[in-house]
Amino acid sequence: MSPGLEKDGTTNTGGEKCWRLISVFCCLLSINSLPHPVTGYAMKTCKISYNFAICVKMKLETIPQDIPPTVEGLDLSANRLSIVQFLDFRNLTLLTWLDLKHNKIALIQKGAFANLTFLKKLNLNQNNLVELTEDLFNGLNNLTELRIASNLIKTVASSAFTSMKSLTFLDISYNKLRDVVGVHLVLQNLPHLRVLYVKNNNLTSFHSWELSNRTLELESLDLSQNSIADFRITADIFPNLTWFNIGGAQRKQQMIWDVHAETVFSQVSTLDISGLQMAFADMKLLFGIVNASLTSLRMNAMKNDLRALINVSCTVPTMSTLQLRHNKLRSVTADLIKLCINLAELDLAENEIQIIGDNAFGSTHNLRTLSLSQNRLLSVPTAIRDLSLVELDLSSNDISKLGCEDFVNQTRMQRLKLYANSISALKECVFKDLVRLQILKLQSNHMTRLNGAFGNHLPDLRQLLLHGNELTSFKRGEFSGLRSLQNLSLHHNKLETFENGCFLGLTNLIELLLQNNNIKEGEINKGCFNDMTNLKRLDLRENHIKYDSSAALPHAPFSQLSRLEMLAIPAQHSRGKSQLPCNFLQGLTKLLSFSVRNSQLLSLDKDTFIYTPQLQELDISSNDLSDLSPDLFVPIQKLKTLYISRTSLGSLFFLTEAKLTQLEFLQARKNQYSVISEEIIKSLPALVYVDFQGNSFTCNCDNAWFIKWAKDTNKTQVFDGYNFKCNYPVQLRGMKLFDLDIQQCSVDTEFILFVSTTCTILLFMAVSFVYHFLRDHLVYMYYLFLSKIFDQRHKNKQVRSQYDAFISYNNHDEPWVVRELLPKLEGEQGWRFCLHHRDFEPGKPIIENIADAIYGSRKTICVISRRYLKSEWCSKEIQLASFRLFHEQKDVLILVFLEEIPASELSPYYNIRKLLKKQTYLSWPRAAEHPKLFWEKLGKALKPKDEDKFDLNVMERRY
User: Fold this and answer.
1) What backbone phi and psi angles, to 5 degrees, belong to 345?
2) 3-class secondary-structure state, position 549
3) Range with the lowest mean pLDDT among 283-292, 827-836, 845-854?
4) What is the pTM of this model?
């Protein structure tokens, strides 16, 4: 169909166009009236961290609705939620991880998760769910991990898991499932389930025919701590099972074990039968089934004869890992594990072992990992000397001394744990054979001296933990044998002095932790750190480092640490104010993070950071820095994180000149400023997180822009913004800042734009409507207005008329006027006429000439033809004449038609049609037979009424 044509072929009218305009207008109105979605990050209860919303321990009773729809993770754990409603997550369609554990959820409405199509992990542990209802998890098509442990679940609807075809991990432990039928209802709709935990339910029997009639793809199955008295499997339904826990619960009777499918556990490599009460003969049958696949066995807290079980289990040739915790062993003798010749890993932790026989491990020549932690050993067992261990754990015992022969021949050992003992001192020879040791943990002992234990040995040691001891000083070369050391932990000791060269040899050290000691500034000024040229992290917090002047030091303490990336200096132990030397950071050209938190600083020199151009994180919180110069930040334009809390700042205006265009994180809690201006925020274009908690905000229009920005921004998270409180004025103290009505503070730009848009559209519609339908009427009103102006000018003038009549005609009709009208009326009858071509005053505006002619003549004769009707000036002439007619109520207008014009052709000319309804007229075409009568009547019409009583109204309309 062609444009502008309707289906019936008619032309599209102006009315149709008008309706289209109305439709557009209605659309615009509907768009402006839609509610705006919540996109701001100034949330009332939660905070955003790496695109995760964290709402932990907020005492929430309902799920917040101001969480940004862009978050991918949501943690609502440890609240008071009791119900999950249908629309709670409707806007969070991008969630991949949802944590609802440790609430009071007893009801989840149907379809509550329907919009979470991208969700991968869901945690509902520790709630009050009693039943998994029909289609409960509808919509979770991509969920791979579901945790619903520690609820009160008794029943499972057949379709509860219908939509969860992608689920691979399910933990439904610690519930009230009574039989395996409930487990069957879980498994029937989960074709790809790999891991299933049904620990600690109320299962009393386990029959394969009740569980499934098909093979399952399970790889891990936990049935532990159930009161299963009858365990029967007649079909090979677990062909892929590699991890199996059938550990027992507290019960009196033994489990009946009836497994006829000899291959059902043929792939199990890890088996946990901890606490299981089962006949010894059935145990032997179980070990016989896993004889070719078992590698790891856990027999913790066993009630049966442990020695017999160990001997039977160790006949499995593939078993290499044995865990025997919580068995109340007091001693370990040679006969305990004499048959375990293939063991590579033995865990005897959490027993009561005091004695270990010298030949206790004589048969385990392949043992590589031995754990004896949390026992009652008083010394390192001599039994280990015959082993070639890679890892030894002796932590949490009562060992007080280490001898030179304790680790003899342990040349393959890589990890040694001796923490949480009572060791008071070391000997130089104690680690002499540990040439491959990489990790040594000696923390939480009572050591006061190292006695050169690290001076010549341990060439491969990478990590040394000595924190939590009572060390007070180091001698020169104390660590010189640790040429491979990367991490050294010395925090929470009593270190006071360092001899020059005490860290000599630590050229590969990356991390040194010295916090919580008694180190003073004089010690670090000795240049004791100069040997650690590869150091990247140095922590000196909670020491006694204090400077009285900001003057430059003769030797900067860290000048040789050109690779240092993180430096933290003290929160003061001693009282008194401190300064920071202006060259304190000299040499640290690669420093990324610097903390001088709680150091009682009074000021920072403007040149403090000229040595650290790469700095990205700065913490100067908890100091008395009431004023910060913008010049301080000029050298560190790469700064991304800034902590300035508790610094007594009265204003943040310095940020506007600091030009920190890359700053992303700003924490400025508990200061003295009361207003956050627009200039401050706009000077930080990269800001994604800001924390202004605990400031004394002013509740007036000065903060109006900040309040609006904090609520509306979808780029920057304003942490805890809805809990900001007002301190000024006094009458509003304690009120929430975001409760302030800011409408009175500024003009609503959006509303103005809406009104302006609406008015523009309405005006456009009105103009279009008038143009299409009232154009002629408008033109008429325009001329009427002009007529009124000239009428006011002339109507009160009592001047005698200059002419008998003004002849209004079109130029094309001038021959008729000159040849017919003038000879008859002016030549024969003696009337005096005004004609524009001969009587208008030259140089005078045309409209004034017309007005003077009309009002200077007794009457106006309009010679009408089709050309006359189309003439602009003729239209103005008849308008002025008709206005004079209407206002003077005199017979001053004579209409003469030169040609027959049908009424249909006169319809567009509103003024002519109106005149014809009230005024008679003469027709020249109809006077063809009686021209003399025509001129006679026209002459009589020209006579004044006081001279001739002839009334034109008695003439016929179409003479």
Assistant:
1) -140, 125
2) coil
3) 845-854
4) 0.73
- Asked whether the bond before 823 is cis by omega within 30 degrees of 0, the reply is no
E strands within 211-351?
Answer: 220-222, 230-233, 243-245, 256-259, 270-272, 296-298, 321-323, 331-332, 345-347
For residue 779, the model assigns a pLDDT of 55
Average pLDDT of span 329-335: 93
> Do residues 572 and 578 make contact, with C-beta atoms less than 8 angstroms apart?
yes
Q: Do residues 148 and 197 touch, judged by C-beta distance below 8 A?
A: no
**Which residues 6+ apart lie within 8 Å of 759 measured at CB?**
none
With CA atoms as reference, report the closest residue to 351 among 302, 386, 313, 391: 302
Give the list of residues 6+ apart from residue 80 with CB closer than 8 angstroms, or none: 59, 60, 61, 103, 104
β-bridge partners, 47: 54
- CB atoms near residue 336 (< 10 Å): 21
Q: What is residue 798's predicted lDDT score, i.e. its pLDDT?
A: 46
Q: At what angle do helices 910-918 and 872-888 cross, to 10 degrees?
A: 40
List the one residue out of 80, 78, 148 whose CA is nearest residue 113.
148
CB 243 within 8 A of CB 268: yes
CB-based burial of residue 214 (10 Å sphere; 0-12 exposed, 13-18 middle, 19+ buried)? exposed
In contact, 702 and 729? CB cutoff 8 Å:
no
Backbone angles phi, psi at 36, to 5 degrees: -80, 135
The residue among 571, 635, 642 whose CA lies nearest residue 609 is: 635
Residue 742's beta-bridge partner residues?
A: none
Q: What is the distance between the alpha carbons of residues 915 and 933, in angstroms, rounded to a whole number?
A: 24
Q: Can you tell me the distance from the alpha carbon of 430 to that of 379, in angstroms, rounded to the nearest whole number?
A: 13
User: Contact at 8 Å (CB) between 108 and 132?
Assistant: no
Beta carbons of 501 and 531 less than 8 angstroms apart: yes
Residue 269 gets which letter from DSSP?
-
Residue 780: its pLDDT value, please?
Answer: 52
- CATH number of this structure's domain 776-954: 3.40.50.10140
Contact 422, 397 (CB under 8 A): no
What is the structure's pLDDT at 748?
61
35 CA to centre of own chain: 20
Mean pLDDT over residues 495-513, rounded? 93
Q: Spell out the SS3 assignment of 614-658.
A: CCCEEECCCCCCCCCCHHHHCCCCCCCEEECCCCCCCCCCHHHHH
pLDDT at 49 over 80: no
- Is pLDDT larger for residue 521 or for residue 847? 521
With tokens 């992290």, the residue in question is: 537
pLDDT reported for residue 954: 31
Residue 814, burial from CB neighbour count under 10 angstroms (0-12, 13-18, 19+):
middle
Rounded distance between C-alpha atoms, residue 324 and residue 302, angstroms = 9
Alpha helices in 295-334, H assignment, sequence order: 306-313
What stretches of 183-240 adopt beta strand conformation (E)? 195-197, 205-207, 220-222, 230-233
Runs of H (alpha helix) within 58-143 = none
How do the domains of the chain map onto residue ranges?
776-954
CB burial of residue 123 (10 Å; 0-12, 13-18, 19+): buried
The pLDDT value recorded for residue 59 is 93
- What Cα–Cα distance (Å) separates residue 855 from each residue in 436, 803, 805, 830? 125, 9, 10, 20
Backbone angles phi, psi at 823, to 5 degrees: -60, -40
Distance CA 678, CA 681 (A): 5
C-alpha neighbours within 13 Å on the C-beta side of residue 782: 9
pLDDT on residue 627:
84
Q: Tell me which residue of 154, 153, 210 sits closest to 187, measured CA to CA.
A: 210
> How high is the pLDDT of residue 27?
37
140-154, 500-514, 820-834, range with the lowest pLDDT? 820-834
